[in-house]
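Whether sequence alone determines local backbone shape is best considered at the level of individual chains. For completeness, the protein is quoted in full, as a sequence line and a line of structure tokens:
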Amino acid sequence: MIPEPVLVQLCMGVPWGAPDDLNTFMAMVNNVPAGWHFSAFGLGRNEMAYVAAATIAGGNVRVGLEDNLWLEKGVLATNAQLVERAATIVENLGARVITPAEVRARLKLDKRAPVAK
């Protein structure tokens, strides 16, 4: 019913959603249909752990202040710092961060100019 390519987001540790545990994460990953893409994220202190887990499982990642405010205990983060840390994890695991153009190609998205207000 959903035309491919499809991207699903696995949201871990979200209240009233998937619990924050690796077994649940892997059960969800193992049920993503063949040919679909998945991305994952975790809330709070486990945000970067899910960057690693999603990368190892063959998926994509997302990070940001909407999920986690802290770079480390007691140190507020910026989005740029979270992205930088996630990119380092991805690359250290032998994967690579793809460009926005590659994402658009993979998901068959058209780049559109911003709508003027």
Observations:
- The chain has one domain: 7-107.
- Residues 13 and 20 are 4 Å apart (CA to CA).
- The radius of gyration is 15 Å.
